[in-house]
Amino acid sequence: MTTESAAARATVHGYPRQGGNRELKKAVEGYWKGRVTADALRETARELRRSNWEQLVDAGVHEVPTGDFSLYDHVLDTSVMVGAVPARHRAAVEADALDGYFAMARGTQDVAPLEMTKWFDTNYHYLVPELGPDSAFSATSDKQVAELKEALALGHSARPVLVGPVTYLLLAKPAPGVAEDFEPLTLLDRLLPVYAEVLADLRAAGAEWVQLDEPALVQDRTPAELNAAARAYRELGGLADRPKLLVASYFDRLGEALPVLAKAPVEGLALDFTDAAAANLADLAAVGGLPGKRLVAGVVDGRNIWINDHQKSLTTLGTLLGLADQVDVAASCSLLHVPLDAAAERDIDPQIRRWLAFARQKTAEIATLARGLSQGTGAIAAELAANRADLASRASSAITNDPAVRARTAAVTESDTRRAQPYAERAAAQRAHLGLPPLPTTTIGSFPQTAELRTARADLRAGWLDKAGYEERIEAEIREVIAFQEKTGLDVLVHGEPERNDMVQYFAEQLTGYLATQHGWVQSYGTRYVRPPVLAGDISRPVPMTVRWTTYAQRQTSRPVKGMLTGPVTMLAWSFVRDDQPLADTARQVALALRDEVADLEAAGTSVIQVDEPALRETLPLRADAHAAYLAWATEAFRLATAGVRPDTQIHTHMCYAEFGDILRAIDDLDADVISLEAARSHMQVADELAGAGYPREVGPGVYDIHSPRVPEEAEAVTLIERALLSVPADRLWINPDCGLKTRGWGEVRPALEHMAAAARRVRGSLPRAES
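RESULT FIELD:
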């Protein structure tokens, strides 16, 4: 492409918040523990914003985002901005805005937090707004205005980024006590004047443009919802006192929402043009483009870490030049979803590192593409040549092709993915073998990762602790965890996973084809950061990964100890996956590696094996027409990993913090014997949904919300168990927390599990004799 255009600007929708050394996490957690003052926390946040903007500008970004930075969650920030504070949190917010903000996010001992769930099909979690017919909104734009002024004072061209009003309402749920059929979108006319006030405040503070994110519009939407979007942007676009409006969507194609936004009286649209949303290009042409408007073209993948194909992106950008008055270059979505800097990964082979693009590298790619679009390809000839060489190096590398792995996956048959016996026969065999009481109690897998454990792992890596000393430390931790569970009265125990740094990374480090990062932190929620491994090549399992510790734990007790594995879909969803082959092919490779591990656990005497798939729902495509194909390969991969066991070996799975209602058939298709799910914050909603769908197997809806520091009393657990029993019969109900306990402290975990076990015993004692 050699055609020159008007100067294209480089920009991004958002940037990682944590800092190079996770300074934000340390400051926020220090504040919670009383070691950091509120002023010091705010100063850390201000310094991180300044550093982020400087990094962007130094890379060649012409317009930086503001308002995307958050101390916990940007949707929670929006709730504060529009005054949507739940009644139970108002006193705390009025007494101290910062403490009230964190109370909404985490709860207190006396007040439950907002519900948490996944942000579309990502592994980022947002705080769900709670609304009802009586909800009143009021504008509080202090944060948004202050951060814009910070950027402008530093001399940057800045664009505030807000969650759009339609997406905000579509993400909301009825508040506790409000009828479940209440639709928050009916509050749109009440919310729009608040957005109008915020827009006016931002214009007065110096904003030329404001971005309103509407990713909910890439999902299947009803005519009424599309009409609401049209009305919202007709009203906001018609305001006299406002900045220019850029409406952004990402993660998929806009589809039927594209003509709605194209015709709206706004000055620009930001669209995703990566492979996940490639149809946006043809759809945009079909509606006649955006004459007289600005188009921010997301041609660099904001969710994965592979280098951009510059020539492919320039071809797309060249086509877009004829479809809008101004074409600017961006990532497909906020760079919140990728780590900060690939250059920090010194332990990865330098050639392979050249295939990787984290946030800093992506901003450089965006700036390069903007320069090429404005000045022609001659201006970036050296960058294009280097890009072609790096793409070719990856395509031809031995790491991406293992003939033995490919032959094994090609040989899989339907019988490999089915248990030999139907569930009813398996259930009878398992009850006879395990001898568990009604309402058996267990946990999801992990126990608190103490500072001593983290220090031991660090000392092992640094060479200050030898392998024998490290294993003695792990054995001691397992003995303590087993002893506690026995004393508490749990029925099916876990070894606590003290040897695991992360439920995906631990396995990735032992499988061929994966790369582990040292500094590739990505925010999952609040101050919880994970390091997703990089799925770079074909997958196999050289040696057993978990048998050593599971069998050691089993020798400490006569009660069954669960083997704990991470399922194939979650291994993909919480990694940065290959983009050079279908996900289904990669999932099958991972499933076969796990199948080998399951077989070794069973051979070693493990009678209960849990294969976690918390990401099954989050990876569901955003458009319904893609659901069936995804769920077919996803459930097949789980069955491929688990179907080879004996009938008396009990297969568990676990899911958490997602909306399960639209994958109930897929949950059944997993053919697991027991499934545990998050349910405490959502008040057992999932138990009702499973019962309504006729789910025939055993279920463990969580009765302890582990994402809050509060310790639930025994009576609370009793109430939740009794609520679950309205939907799930006692002979199929398990009692467990919502999720693993890794992020909690022992001071919270001990009393919470004691209360949970006591509640199970109390309800168990009240069951009719026929059920017990």
